[in-house]
Amino acid sequence: MNNVFVYCEMEGNHVADVSLELLTKGRKLATELGCQLEAICAGCGLADVEKQVLPFGVDRVHVFDAPGLFPYTSLPHTSILVNLFKQEKPQICLMGATVIGRDLGPRVSSALTSGLTADCTQLEIGDHEDKKNGVTYKNLLYQIRPAFGGNIVATIVNPEHRPQMATVREGVMKKEILDENYQGEVIRHDVAKFVPETDYVVKVIDRHVEKAKHNLKGAPIVVAGGYGMGSKEGFDMLFELAKELHAEVGGSRAAVDAGFCDHDRQIGQTGVTVHPKLYIACGISGQIQHIAGMQDAGIIISVNSDPNAPINSIADYVINGTVEEVIPKMIKYYKKNSK
Ligand SMILES: Cc1cc2nc3c(=O)[nH]c(=O)nc-3n(C[C@H](O)[C@H](O)[C@H](O)COP(=O)(O)OP(=O)(O)OC[C@H]3O[C@@H](n4cnc5c(N)ncnc54)[C@H](O)[C@@H]3O)c2cc1C
């Protein structure tokens, strides 16, 4: 009762990274609240799935293992969460802001008439004072995310309704094992008690999953280009530099919108969040929506013709010049020095 729950997304019998990141965050929240962390794994062939989640500090794992639960379909998974939450009455439920989380979260929150904040960038515990009614609510989940086109950072609370639900994109939270030998209880539920037969009305006959073309999220070095790269050909220079540095190429939304690079390479609030050791921003002005996706980079180098570009204020090194003149030199000297 009153615990923190994380819905773990399954790819086959593997727990998705975004869920492990949320377990890490959930552990911190549960510890602060003095309650337990519980994980829900629903899929097919989940023997030993607990081994993947317990090291993240999970106190109880709810396993739902049945043939119709993988690949994900909306109705059975919704029934599992709704019926489990009616029993367990969690105070918080977290899930990935993925295709699945975006489908499942609203269904569950609507069935339980609870609140849901999508795409949170931070989650914290704090109090809320309702001055109008003279009530102070203790230990609420602060669901923090950019709002109004990213121009403000809003803190959203659900004072009355439970669970307080939030989705978070992959890569926003850090994944950290708490203790390899963490001991927790494993509960293998009788799925039929939670999911009516009629929920299996949709059957997935065939499924094609396209492999990611790059590893932008996990890359230790990212070379990112903005509108200042000027063209698709300008981006070819970045791919050449990235090849030399064993890096991945990312882009700003303006560069993606202009067709300079593919959409799946967009970094920022509505793109991918990256945490590289080195981020080289080329012809990127550094608007808040872009910064949201790369501000945790270890070292930031900005290449920009405008000495007052906002990105320069968060950069560790600024190279003031045009990309046309600076990038070829970087390629040339890196090639020379790495021989
Ligand atoms: C709801 C919302 C979500 C958004 N989400 C994202 C997001 O996820 N990611 C994102 O990136 N943006 C996002 N944006 C857009 C964001 O506000 C900016 O418009 C965008 O980041 C600007 O991209 P840019 O820096 O490449 O372009 P610009 O702002 O046009 O900057 C170009 C930069 O290049 C420099 N430059 C020009 N020519 C050269 C040259 N020859 N050599 C060197 N430097 C040069 C200029 O000095 C300038 O600093 C979002 C906006 C909204 C409203």
TrEMBL record:
<keyword id="KW-0285">Flavoprotein</keyword>
<comment type="similarity">
    <text>Belongs to the ETF alpha-subunit/FixB family.</text>
</comment>
<dbReference type="GO" id="GO:0033539">
    <property type="term" value="P:fatty acid beta-oxidation using acyl-CoA dehydrogenase"/>
</dbReference>
<dbReference type="InterPro" id="IPR029035">
    <property type="entry name" value="DHS-like_NAD/FAD-binding_dom"/>
</dbReference>
<dbReference type="InterPro" id="IPR001308">
    <property type="entry name" value="ETF_a/FixB"/>
</dbReference>
<dbReference type="GO" id="GO:0009055">
    <property type="term" value="F:electron transfer activity"/>
</dbReference>
<dbReference type="Pfam" id="PF00766">
    <property type="entry name" value="ETF_alpha"/>
</dbReference>
<feature type="binding site">
    <location>
        <begin position="266"/>
        <end position="270"/>
    </location>
    <ligand>
        <name>FAD</name>
    </ligand>
</feature>
<dbReference type="InterPro" id="IPR014731">
    <property type="entry name" value="ETF_asu_C"/>
</dbReference>
<keyword id="KW-0249">Electron transport</keyword>
<feature type="domain" description="Electron transfer flavoprotein alpha/beta-subunit N-terminal">
    <location>
        <begin position="4"/>
        <end position="204"/>
    </location>
</feature>
<dbReference type="Pfam" id="PF01012">
    <property type="entry name" value="ETF"/>
</dbReference>
<feature type="binding site">
    <location>
        <position position="304"/>
    </location>
    <ligand>
        <name>FAD</name>
    </ligand>
</feature>
<dbReference type="InterPro" id="IPR014730">
    <property type="entry name" value="ETF_a/b_N"/>
</dbReference>
<protein>
    <submittedName>
        <fullName>Electron transfer flavoprotein subunit alpha/FixB family protein</fullName>
    </submittedName>
</protein>
<feature type="binding site">
    <location>
        <begin position="252"/>
        <end position="253"/>
    </location>
    <ligand>
        <name>FAD</name>
    </ligand>
</feature>
<keyword id="KW-0813">Transport</keyword>
<feature type="binding site">
    <location>
        <begin position="283"/>
        <end position="290"/>
    </location>
    <ligand>
        <name>FAD</name>
    </ligand>
</feature>
<dbReference type="GO" id="GO:0050660">
    <property type="term" value="F:flavin adenine dinucleotide binding"/>
</dbReference>
<keyword id="KW-0274">FAD</keyword>
<dbReference type="InterPro" id="IPR014729">
    <property type="entry name" value="Rossmann-like_a/b/a_fold"/>
</dbReference>
<dbReference type="InterPro" id="IPR033947">
    <property type="entry name" value="ETF_alpha_N"/>
</dbReference>
